[in-house]
Amino acid sequence: MAELDLKEIGVRGVNSALHALPEGTNDQDWEINNPMGLHAIACGLDAPLKVKINGHAGFYCGGMNQQAKITIQGHAGVGVAENMMSGSVCVTGNASESAGATAHGGLLVIKGDASSRCGISMKGVDIVVGGSVGHMSAFMAQLGHLVVCGDAGDALGDSIYEAVLFVRGKVASLGADCIEKTMRPEHKTKLTELLTAAGIDADPSEFVRYGSARNLYNFDIDNLDEY
Amino acid sequence: MCGIVGLYLKNTDMQSKLGALFAPMLIAMTDRGPDSAGFAIYRNPVGENETKFTLASDDAKTDWESLASELEKKLACAARIDLHGDHAVMVTESDPQAVQNWLAEFRPTIRIVGSGRAIEIFKQTGLPKDVAEQFKLATAHGSHAIGHTRMATESAVTTEGSHPFATGLDLCLVHNGSLSNHNWVRRELEREGIMFQTENDTEVAAGYLTSKLRQGASLHEALDAGLKELDGFYTFCVGTADGFAVVRDPFACKHAVLAETDDWVAMATEYRAIAHLPGADTARIWEPEPHKIYTWGSVH
After folding, report:
1. In chain A, what residues touch B271 (CB-CB under 8 Å)?
2. Region of residue B229 (phi > 0: left; psi between -120 and 50: alpha; otherwise: beta)
3. Cys-Cys with B212: which of A70, A214, B193, B217 at CB 3.0–4.6 Å?
């Protein structure tokens, strides 16, 4: 295991060191110390590394990640794992707004609560939140899964496309075109798989599935006069 | 843009270090607001019958001592004055309104930046580190402080347009965001007799709270009413005699983070302003919810 001290070499130093690793390197385990809430830590990685950030991170931590398994030991600021393509990002504390924004793939796990707009415009990522999510979560969510073990704030899944949402607790309100749906066996199987991958112990049968009514994004001839 | 920060010490043993802990918070938010900075610090509460005024003047030659002695004569009261950069802190037993009236009539170029029993407000154009240095923030003691680093979007870069804005005795406001209906609210408030020194939207929010408090509302009620009537994107941090309050608009898209330990509670636009505080690594950290009023200390 190798260590990088962010206080000494700065964000650019840390990220350059991780980007410069040759393909197939044996140095796959990394720890980043003294993150001090700085932004863009461990962004743009594209290698099967294990990266542990020992402390609270600022904005956009783990953004654009591919392949790497990143753990943030603490709180994550705005836009954690934004635009992740593959790999995983795990936050042991809470996360600020827009967690997993626009992410295409991979797994984002937030053990605590996520704030507003969690999974905004998600495009294929799987997000598992141990606690609750704030308002406007899964706004314009296109693909992937959002699992919320606690409650969801107002306007969940507003203008949702094909993402699938599972919520165990209360939903303050559903956004436009987001509706409750039947939990079929294949959904329960997927949910079980996601909870297991996230290491969160929760009973899948306590969750409710939400998704798109598909009324908003299909052209309706009756609305012709509106255009 | 803009950055706001607040630090309230629950552990009174730490009061001698308030400035040393708070100055790096303000300076950490320089990237968000490099054009001016300001802070309110709560310290050395004066006696029951006294009022503390923070005064500012654009004229470097202002003779503060003679101002105080003239005021003593005219209002037949004792007045003592300390200089802090181009600001002065004056303590007097005179009726606060009489002092305001006297200054408005005889020293119209002097601005009252804040008043109360404990509050002192210092603000200036320039980099936060220069503003902190000018007013010796790093060595200041006190119970709590709130501060602001400004990147102006709504009005001119001037000392008057810098935050915090006083909203009443021992009350002040810093703001990250912008209000969209401030011209309308300003006109309404002017009709009620609230005076404004600038075109700044935050001054309108401060004036709004002042108006509600004058009508007898509690701070909580005033903030609650503000959530309904002030339109825009904002995170407010309000300093009170014994604590502070944090409130975000219903959309909550202006960043804010809160951190709390047994010794202190801190708020900032970004966590990196809090990271250096002792025990921050194990603090409870979360993002304040929209449309919810958070308070510490007493906010009556």
Report:
1. 37, 56, 58, 75, 77
2. alpha
3. B217
